[in-house]
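Subject: Protein record for review, amino acid sequence with backbone structure tokens
Why sent: The fold of this protein is of interest and is recorded here as tokens.
Notation: Tokens come from a learned vocabulary of local backbone shapes, not from coordinates.
Attached in line: The record itself begins immediately under this heading.
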Amino acid sequence: MHQLEATRGVDSPLVGFARLLLVGVGMIGHSLRYKNQGLTSLAYGLGYAAIVLHSIQPFTLLASALLGFGTVIHLLRRNWYVMSLGGIVATYGCLFLWASRQSVLTTDVMRLGLGALLINWVVFLVADFAREPEDDLDRQYAWGSSLLNALAAGWLSFTFWIKADASGGWRPLFAFGCAYAFTSTALRLMGRRTVQPAHSLAASLLLAVAFHKGLDRTRATWAWLLEAQAVVLVGVFLKDRFHRMLGCCLFLAPMIAIFYDQVDARVGRPHGGFDATRFLQTVVACGCFYLTFARLKAFASSSEAGRAEEAVRRMFSYGAFLLVVLALWVQLPEVWVAPAGAILLLLLFELSAARSIEDLRMQAHLAALFAAVTGLALGAQSRDLMAGVPARIPALLVVAAAYFVVFLRQRNARTLCIEADDTLRPIYSWVGAFAVALVVWLEARPTLVGPVWMILALLLVEAGIALGESDLRLPGYVVLVASHASLAMSNLTATGLVGGLSVRAMTVTPAIAATYYLWWRLRSLPQEGSKRAGDGRDEVFGRFLSYLGAAMIGLFVRFEFGLEGAALRWSLAMVVLLLAGHVLRDADLRFQGYLVAAAVIVRAVGFDFRSANRILGLDGPLLITIVGVAGYLAAGFLIRMRRTAAGARNDRRSLEIESTLEPYGPDLMWLLAVALTALYLYRTWSGVPLIVAWAVEGLCAAGAGFALKARSLRLSGLALLAVCVAMTLVRAFTTFDMPGRIVTFLVLGVVLLVISFAYTRYRESIRKVL
């Protein structure tokens, strides 16, 4: 050996190389005589070691090619595929080392390297035309050897070429790709089914890389599309799953290229813009995807490979959908992206309904999501005009219309395609209602938002009732509540006049009327039987509307007429609510009457008695007291009448708390009447006149209690008289002189004796009255 210092036996490197190579040739000859793959592999290893250890020159490249040819001979004679695989690695490894040791790769040197590479490639290519391997392990080695030969040849040829000509590296790749396309066809015709797929894979990969290196992005995308579609169609024609799946995988390259190109274009044009080249490219790609989707349907099967192919086939429809959505986002002005997505939603929905294609239905739902998101993120933010009108108005209305159309189309059970349809269907009505409400909020003046929302709520609820769709009524309820919130924040405090009336009168009053109309409409819905149109939620919201309407009336009156004399208006409202609750058999209205009754005395005592001005020429506090007492008395009689009336408990709407209050209702109202009068007298008079006034009130209350058989009036009157007696005694001892005290006690004694005599004389009659 020459290269190893410890074992150097000759000084000439050429002689050393010849001796080592001679030993290898001898071992090769020996291996041809005896069938020992291990010894043969060792012989070839020594031969390659001689080449590597020697300073690699052109003639050593020839030697490595001869050794490679020897491995092929063994493969052809004895099916030694492992040895052939090692020969490919060693041969191309020597060629790589030779190229890496070239300081400058001139044209002549490049040609030498390519020539050696071509010889090696042809030598190992011969092995692919050998007879078919018999066992699975040999098939795997044969397949791997064939693919390794192709990839190594392509990579080294590209490396050689770009060192001499940086722009021409695609040429050897293209040439090898075409060559493998030809050899794949030849192997198919010869029946070599083991390595033929490897040749198809090598041809596809080499051509794809050649397109990438030799063409610009747009042209390379066209070439990739053509190549992938051609491979898929070849697989369809040959009924070969490998080629069909190979073509499907090749579609990834144009898909990624188109996606990157579209996104890059959209980033450069924030507001979008039509580009004919990109549009045509997307259309062709979608056509290829849908063609593949349709052609692969015939190859579905129940096997594991068939199910995998079916999953890949379904992904093509989603890929086409993604390209369409991407094109809409890139090609259209931002305000029209959402309407285009809505139209895509309708198309996909109708196609899936007509053909019962689950994937198209799922894509329809995804298109709906796309339309909603882009409508909110792009359309709602747009300031573009169309014929002098903000373009976002028709854009968002188109989205809303598409959502409502899909919602209504799904009423027909035949249009249902996937299990998720039932779950997703209510979302369409909600999003449609939200889109319309959003348009109003964006474009209408603040004082018009509430009224227009109220109209929208009426339409939704009426449509929901007519069609029996709770998913239309529920968005209507939410819009109605939002309408009242908008009215409370914007309209109640608005100033200005419209036609001689205030803005709040022109906007809030119709809203209150609409609220009570819906209250009546929901109240009149059949609750039982086959004609039932509502459900529990409708009933609950209908009851809520009575409170909402009452609250809005209170706010309107407060802002329209002020707070002065509020107790007077509340007294009238109390009677009206109790009367309406009695006539309509509605416990919610009666309960509101109780609440207003409590508010009347709080408002009168806390505010109106101190600050009320004259009303209609009368003293304000006096008029408030008169009306309040009259209202309390009327309310008490009304509650009593209801309790004694036949069928009083047969309410359309009942309320537990109101049912608990009702037995005590008359007593509560009459006690409030006595209390309100007493508090007014206390505020107005003092001293002896107050005692006399309270005494008169107590006598009237007690007398009325006896006459009306009202225990609460009797007790309150007697309690007030007791207070008068106590106040008289206190005043007699603290204020009067001796004669005054004598007269006071005489008069008081006479009164008490008369009362005692009357009670004793008419005890039985009084008990009968009581």
Remarks:
- The radius of gyration is 49 Å.
- Strands lie at 385-386, 389-390, 497-498, 501-502.
